[in-house]
């Protein structure tokens, strides 16, 4: 099994944006429905900024404020369904997740991949997370950190979070893709424990590793526009194929009707001809028999 390590230091590049251009810390929350994204956002902001009980996030929503002396902007995004990652509703969720970048211009310092701690985390679940992270582009992994939401420390079964993560192959693979970065928010933190300060420290360490750059909003939004254009083209092609198929079906239906009409006409003509071809003598005999009666 691969070792969980930090990614090597990366200097600012043409694709990045210098932090001095955007002093506010910008965070985007990404995760499946009911993963605890909204609760995590509330914990970070230190207030009830996002609805978290029985309400699904339909649109991306921002909240900003002063957190531990640092100006912070958090954007909550809609979650996807494990069982529906390719349907029409899933497509709209993907587009809305990408459009979240319009709320954190000119870019995001961190994508927090919110994952409820589960020892049954499967390959399918990991691939769904990866699919949605890659909506932001391949460079998004350099700005990603797995944030576990844990209801109770008893879930750790007496071991450390790192030990438990190492036992789950799929969780481990996801963390490795994030450069070994992960953190946790407990619903019952220890007395005196400042979970948010610890999370911000990890984000700032990641920012230093990234050469103080951000994930560009414009690049993600341009990618969303291209994907939307491709989807419109695909739907138009499907509509053309559907119309062509319907036209063929209609021609077949018309052909069957014409064939049936021809058959009916032939049957009628045959009966008429049989009646017309009856010998005159037989007709006379019929009349004669009628007279005799």
TrEMBL record:
Residue ranges the record marks as coiled coil: 218-245
Biased composition (Polar residues): 272-293
Keywords from the named record: Coiled coil, GTP-binding, Nucleotide-binding
Disordered: region residues: 251-293
UniProt cross-references to InterPro entries, sorted A to Z: G_AIG1 (IPR006703), GIMA/IAN/Toc (IPR045058), P-loop_NTPase (IPR027417)
Alphabetical list of Pfam families matching this protein: AIG1 (PF04548)
GO molecular function term, any single one: GTP binding
Ranges of residues in domain AIG1-type G: 22-224
Matching PANTHER family: GTPASE IMAP FAMILY MEMBER 4-LIKE-RELATED, GTPASE, IMAP FAMILY MEMBER-RELATED
Family: Belongs to the TRAFAC class TrmE-Era-EngA-EngB-Septin-like GTPase superfamily. AIG1/Toc34/Toc159-like paraseptin GTPase family. IAN subfamily.
Designated name of the protein: AIG1-type G domain-containing protein
Annotated source species: Cyprinus carpio (Common carp)
